[in-house]
Amino acid sequence: MVLRCLVWLFIIGCVSKVLCSCGAQSEPTAPQGAASCGCEKLKRAAAAVDGAEEQTASVLTDTAGKYSRVANERASQAQGDERELHSQMVQISGGEFLMGTDNPGIPADGEGPPRLVHVDSFYMDIQEVTNRQFQSFVHATAYVTEAEKFGDSFVFEGILSETVKSQITQAVAAAPWWLPVKGANWRHPEGLDSNITDRLDHPVLHVSWADAVAYCSWTNKKLPTEAEWEYACRGGLKDRLYPWGNKLNPKGQHYANLWQGDFPNHNTGEDGYVKSSPVMSFPANGFGLYDMVGNAWEWTSDWWTVHHTTEQQDNPKGPPSGTDKVKKGGSYMCHKSYCYRYRCAARSQNSPDSSASNLGFRCVSREQR
């Protein structure tokens, strides 16, 4: 079994998984002296088992196959109302686009160089997978998420109750707003004293990469490649920062669930939310996709690398192996002073077993579902 314990620099104790919502360094135009979120300090234990990457890949492949088989076996038995729980999809017509940027907000993340990429047509969920939809999957398959198996997950301190915070003795000194919370998982986003009763239409959170793969396989879909995700995020626009253009708040309107105020001390909630929002609460992009930036980070299928070819590529899938997976889109915690990653070209990373209170996903398919 892949060694789960990750060694943190500047952390008290050892926890079962790692999550970063912010990235490796501050956005370059941030005020001088602005701190990073400390995520670059996180390192996998040096004693990791040889061949761990291959073993992890094998386990994830088996997981995907298992739930794909479950989906096929149940297809003829599924009730109509259950089918309707699956996300509506929209066709994204294939084409060429410039992936990445020649003006990176965070160069260390490998946002550049820009490169010409072609992707074939595909279908994408118009929204992030919701708690209601994931609950349907769990009811049908008895699936148990990795956060539930590990017994904890990471939660932003600002949304925790005082009772929960009083029971926590560990924190990352470089990013003390991230706390490992016992009992935190998709059913209990802020620990055991929370639930999703009034958040069934919010994105499911605290899901690992393997959890996301299992759900997508159950619906006969898959996670998008980074290229597919970025092409979809751009919504047909060229050389623009956001899915809707270059202005963050056109005509004073909010187009995404992001952080307003002084991160991490105070979120004013000008956009109406201080944590996750119901899916489709903000305008869709030109392809009809909602929340492509903000709300929740979204897993992709690609392994992480910061080195990219400048040659034209067709349907790139990232490197064949690695230790971290690419996530895109930023979250409700993103603020320009700390996490300028709510841009289509922005990117970040996490180990496949990571989970946290701002990390979710959506699925794609080559065929309409």
From TrEMBL:
GO molecular function: formylglycine-generating oxidase activity; identical protein binding; metal ion binding
Signal peptide limits: 1-20
Any GO BP: post-translational protein modification
GO cellular component labels: endoplasmic reticulum lumen
EC numbers for this chain: 1.8.3.7
Entry-linked InterPro entries: CTDL_fold, Sulfatase_Mod_Factor_Kinase, SUMF_dom, SUMF_sf
Pfam families assigned to the protein according to its UniProt record, in alphabetical order: FGE-sulfatase
Reactions listed under catalytic activity: L-cysteinyl-[sulfatase] + 2 a thiol + O2 = an organic disulfide + 3-oxo-L-alanyl-[sulfatase] + hydrogen sulfide + H2O + H(+)
Gene3D superfamilies, per database record: paralog of FGE (formylglycine-generating enzyme) (3.90.1580.10)
Keyword Oxidoreductase among UniProt keywords: yes
Localisation per UniProt entry: Endoplasmic reticulum lumen
Coiled coil regions in record: none
Pathway assigned in UniProt: Protein modification; sulfatase oxidation
Positions of the Sulfatase-modifying factor enzyme-like domain: 87-364
Keyword annotations: Calcium, Copper, Disulfide bond, Endoplasmic reticulum, Glycoprotein, Metal-binding, Oxidoreductase, Signal
Protein family per UniProt: Belongs to the sulfatase-modifying factor family.
Function summary: Oxidase that catalyzes the conversion of cysteine to 3-oxoalanine on target proteins, using molecular oxygen and an unidentified reducing agent. 3-oxoalanine modification, which is also named formylglycine (fGly), occurs in the maturation of arylsulfatases and some alkaline phosphatases that use the hydrated form of 3-oxoalanine as a catalytic nucleophile. Known substrates include GALNS, ARSA, STS and ARSE.
PANTHER family attached to this UniProt entry: FORMYLGLYCINE-GENERATING ENZYME, SULFATASE MODIFYING FACTOR 1, 2
Quaternary context: Monomer, homodimer and heterodimer with SUMF2.
Name of the protein in its database record: Formylglycine-generating enzyme
UniProt organism field: Scomber scombrus
